[in-house]
């Protein structure tokens, strides 16, 4: 019944759009190519021909399954480009080329798809990357979250866009990126050394709390917005001035705790964070306390953790703070000479506790 | 109810496996790294560091949503590597590096995941590529196909692997590939010229009919198996001997018809295929007639269409036929001097009809 109802609709994605035939071509030409226009993508060959003068490259892939797809501060399209570009940046690589693969549930509104692709284009332009190759698949309608009734009414309803609707058809994006590594830079999570300082480029937990607030309809604060943003233009001047940055990591899933624990473990060092130095917006802190969450574990999508020698701290902070994405950069801890692999938090109360990697996650489908 | 039932199970993938914490690391270390082992992947940085001496590269991406994930002749893992490697090969590029991104529905059996990753590893080794970077996401259980009851019983049941089970948790793979383009080769779907010959490297429709037979439980023939296989080792010697191959395309979704129509349209030429030259296995032809399908429209996953000058035909066929994957290679048509963009089929009955790109698709989720 749902299928016969949906089959004739022109405003939603249909299974036939994923068949590789005329309807696939029409969808790509009308919804995707215009927004992402570039000469390589336009050829629509099975593989894109790209030229990179450098031989030392970085490659990274991420799928985005975030729910809801639209949220304060961004959407799944903007997130998918920023996330992948930021993973390249964290490796000291200038983002160059991206692929974009869509898996769309039938019934997904074409207007929403256009909006997402628009965000992909905007994020790509502001990150200096080209989307050079892509793929579109359509899968049968599932009934995630809502039961059949919720799915049917959502399908038939055509509610206004922009807010989260349980039981709606979903979309997954994959972006895979290629970047050119800066010569003379060797950042790796294995490079932290005793005496190094830990820097964060801004406040913690904005993305995760914005998603949770939207998804659960908590209305905890109207000011919660995701920090999703591309980071290469923030990071590049730092690497140009201080090629000897030891580690970089963007604290996404698992938050700052997961990123810092990963550095401590991979480098075999002990890290001590200072709770009073950790930057958190009051509205994030407030929402976290209500929900019993630790901002250290909440995801970010526009922040970086940097580890460098203490002698470089002043210049690194100066460069970071000169960029709009890094104004609130600050040192949050040190690598100390103690048994390796552990992260300690000096609490505001004057105590000390161990910071752990979360086992599972507080909030599924955060990115 | 389903969740509390599943939460403690050790034999299925749980939402927490996608959280980016300890359980994600454990899943990756225990199920994935061993099969795909290589020094780059093992570093588990956010982006992989790769070196490519060549500067002219090819990049391609594909998501795989095939249902069922296991089928005669292969599975989604083998398909995901072959499909991406073949898209690079069709651009005259030697496959080098692949990314692998998994989107898994909670409740998916870990044994099935192991089997799929095993196939990814096998296909990567036989194609000469390394999987250098990856991503794992877990999404909530949907109730695709079956209603809630089917989903629940499938979740609780733990039926024997290897056959298709409606309403089971699913998995999607994305593979993105980087290859190095052979110097002096310029294949493109825009390069076909009047007088050129059209070659296919084997029989048509094996993949699509194998999937349909399995999925619908048709039991049309026990001999139907997918042709999924990597093609670079077949294609490279041809390009080495005849760099002037004009076009290559693997006839996947939409079959040979879609591939040849695409070449005709993109090159602005007219192509005439000869029905009596088209190689089709008797069991595929038989199943197609029963279902009213045209083998020209049925997907392949281990075949290529090549277009070259007539003077090169003999040597190209000789090289193709010397390879196990190309034994049944043959010429199936010609580019003729006639109004452009059209594909004609000379029928066995002596008539002529227009071959069209399918509008939607006969069979969803074929790859």
Write the layout of secondary structure elements.
Two copies of one chain form a homodimer.
Chain A: H1 2-7, H2 22-36, H3 39-42, E1 48-51, E2 56-64, E3 70-71, E4 74-75, H4 76-89, E5 93-105, H5 110-127, E6 130-139, H6 148-157, E7 171-181, E8 197-200, H7 206-215, H8 232-241, E9 247-249, H9 255-267, E10 270-274, H10 282-291, E11 305-308, H11 313-321, E12 330-336, E13 343-346, E14 352-355
Parallel strand pairs in A: 5-6, 10-13
Antiparallel strand pairs in A: 2-7, 3-4, 5-7, 8-11, 8-12, 9-11, 10-12, 13-14
Notable characteristics:
homodimer; 367 residues; alpha+beta; 60s Ribosomal Protein L30, Chain: A; Phosphoribosyl-aminoimidazole Synthetase, Chain A, domain 2; 14 strands; 32% helix
What features would you describe in this structure?
Chain A has about 375 residues and is α+β, with helices and mostly antiparallel strands. The first copy, chain A, folds into 2 domains: about 180 residues, 60s Ribosomal Protein L30, Chain: A; about 160 residues, Phosphoribosyl-aminoimidazole Synthetase, Chain A, domain 2 (Alpha-Beta Complex), CATH 3.90.650. In chain A, about 30% of the residues lie in helices and about 20% in strands. In chain A, the strands form 3 sheets. Chain A has a 7-stranded mixed beta sheet, with helices on one face. In chain A, strand 3 and strand 4 form a beta hairpin. In chain A, helix 2 packs across helix 5 and helix 8 runs antiparallel to helix 11. The longest helix of chain A has 18 residues. The first copy, chain A, is globular and about 65 Å long. The two termini of chain A are about 35 Å apart. The N terminus of chain A is likely disordered.
């Amino acid at each position: 019944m749902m299928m016969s109802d949906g089959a004739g609709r022109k405003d939603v994605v249909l299974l036939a759009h994923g068949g590789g035939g005329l309807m696939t071509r029409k969808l790509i030409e009308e919804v995707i190519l215009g927004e992402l226009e570039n000469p390589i993508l336009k050829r629509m060959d099975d593989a894109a021909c790209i030229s990179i003068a450098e031989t030392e490259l970085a490659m990274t892939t991420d799928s985005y399954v975030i729910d809801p797809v639209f949220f304060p501060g961004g959407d799944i399209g903007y997130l998918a480009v920023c996330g992948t570009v930021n993973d390249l940046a964290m490796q000291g690589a200038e983002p160059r080329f991206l692929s974009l693969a869509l898996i769309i549930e039938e019934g997904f509104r074409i207007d929403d798809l256009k909006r997402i692709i628009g965000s992909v284009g905007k994020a790509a332009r502001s990150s200096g990357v080209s989307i050079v190759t892509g793929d579109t698949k359509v899968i049968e309608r599932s009934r995630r979250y809502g039961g059949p009734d919720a799915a049917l009414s959502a399908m038939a309803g055509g509610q206004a866009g922009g807010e989260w609707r349980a039981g709606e058809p979903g979309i997954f994006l994959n972006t895979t990126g290629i970047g050119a590594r800066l010569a003379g830079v060797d950042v790796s999570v294995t490079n932290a050394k005793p005496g190094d300082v830990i820097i964060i480029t801004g406040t913690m937990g904005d993305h995760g709390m914005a998603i949770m607030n939207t998804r659960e309809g908590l209305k905890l604060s109207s000011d919660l917005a995701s920090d999703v943003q591309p980071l290469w233009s923030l990071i590049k001047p730092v690497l140009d001035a201080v090629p000897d940055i030891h580690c970089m990591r963007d604290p996404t899933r698992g938050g700052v705790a997961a990123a810092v624990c990963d550095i401590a473990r991979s480098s075999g060092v002990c890290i001590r964070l200072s709770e009073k130095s950790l930057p958190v917006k009051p509205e994030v802190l407030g929402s976290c306390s209500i929900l019993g969450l630790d901002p250290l574990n909440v995801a970010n999508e526009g922040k970086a953790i940097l580890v460098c020698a203490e002698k470089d701290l002043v210049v690194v902070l100066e460069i970071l703070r000169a960029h709009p994405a890094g104004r609130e950069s600050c040192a949050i801890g040190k690598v100390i000479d103690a048994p390796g692999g552990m992260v300690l938090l000096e609490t505001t109360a004057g105590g000390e506790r161990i910071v752990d990697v979360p086992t599972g996650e507080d909030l599924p489908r955060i990115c």
